[in-house]
Amino acid sequence: MIEISEQDRVFILTGAGISAESGLPTFRGAGGLWRSYRVEEVASPRAWQHDPRLVWEFYSMRRRVAAAAKPNPGHLALAQLERTLQERLFLCTQNVDSLHEQAGSRRLVHMHGELFKSRCDRCDRRPFYDAETYEPPADIPRCHCGGQIRPHICWFGEVPYHLDRIFEVLAQATLFIAVGTAGVVEPAASFVTHLSGRAPSYYVGPEEPANASAFTKCFLAKSGELLPALFHRL
Ligand SMILES: [Zn+2]
After folding, report:
1. Given 75, 110, 112, 152, the catalytic residue
2. 35 CA to middle of ligand 1, Å?
3. HSE-up of 121 (CA within 13 Å, CB side)?
4. How many angstroms does the Cα of residue 41 sit away from the middle of ligand 1?
5. Ligand 1 center from residue 151 Cα (angstroms)
6. Where are the alpha helices (DSSP H) in 68-125?
C-alpha cells in the first residue's frame, strides 16, 4: 500500500505501459516498427520535411487505433485519486492518447503532445482538437497562414512540452509515483531523482524499469491490477 496523508502533494508520471494494458501498441523504444520503418524515421522533424504524407499516414493509423481503445482500471484508479486529492495531485503523462481524460482525469499535462490535436508548422496558432485522418490521396491540410498542419506531437529531437510547470510541481511534491514507464526516455526518466532523499517514490508496472534503483520501492505488477487497491489515505 502507498499511504497518502492530508498534506501530501502527489506527482504521478505515466508511460506507455498503462496504455499498453488498454491494447495500444508502444512504438517508442527498442524494436518499435511501423511497416518497415523505425519509428524514429517517421516521428521526427526530418521526416516531416522530407515526407509529410508518410508522417500523416502514421499518425492517421495511430488515431484510428487510439480511437477504439478504452481506459483500463489503472486509468480509472488515477482519476479516482484525483477526485479525492484534487489540486494535491498532478498527473504528467508521456502518452499521447486521451485515455486518462476518458477515465475522468482533468489535472494533467501531456509532455509528449496529444494524438487528437494538431497545430501549424509555421505560425503560433494554438494546438486544436483534430481527430481527422489524412492519408493519400488526401492533401495535407493547410493553415490560413500557408503553413502545413502537423500532429501536435513531440517528435524525436524536439523539446517536450510543459517542462517549466512540471519541474515547478516536482519541486513541491512529497510523493512520486511512476506508472508503466521504462525509465529510459529523458527527461522523464530523471524526474524521480528530483525527489531522491526527501520524499518517497514508487514504481508500478509489470517489468522493472531501467532506473529502478532510484525508487523507494517498485511494485512489479500490471497497473490495472494493482492501482485500484494501492492507495491508502491516512
Ligand atoms: Zn499557421
Report:
1. 112
2. 31
3. 18
4. 25
5. 13
6. 73-85, 99-103
Sequence-ordered list of residues with C-beta below 8 angstroms from that of 201, at least 6 positions apart, any chain: 175, 176, 177, 178, 192, 195, 214, 215, 216
Q: Output the nine-digit C-alpha cell for 219.
A: 511494485
**Which H or E run contains 45?**
helix 45-50
Please list, in sequence order, all residues whose beta carbon lies within 8 angstroms of the beta carbon of residue 161, skipping any fewer than 6 positions away: 109, 110, 111, 112, 113, 154
Q: Which residues of 115-146 are buried (b: 16+ CB within 10 A; e: fewer)?
A: bbbbbbbeeeeebeebeeebeeeeeeeebeee
Query: How far, in Å, CA of 92 to CA of 108, rounded?
Result: 6
Three-state DSSP at 64 gives: helix
Ligand 1 center to residue 57 CA distance, Å?
A: 21
From first to last of the 234 residues of the chain, give the pLDDT tens digit.
Answer: 899 999 999 999 999 999 999 999 876 654 667 878 888 889 999 999 999 999 999 999 999 999 999 999 999 999 999 999 999 999 999 999 999 999 999 999 999 999 999 999 999 999 999 999 998 888 899 999 999 999 999 999 999 999 999 999 999 999 999 999 988 888 999 999 998 889 999 999 999 999 999 999 999 999 999 999 998 765
CB neighbours of residue 114 within 10 Å: 22
Question: What is the rounded end-to-end Cα distance, in angstroms, of the chain?
Answer: 11
Known catalytic residue: 112? yes
pTM: 0.94
Distance 118 CA to ligand 1 centre (A): 11
Task: Give the CB-side neighbour count of residue 47, counting CA atoms within 13 A.
Answer: 21
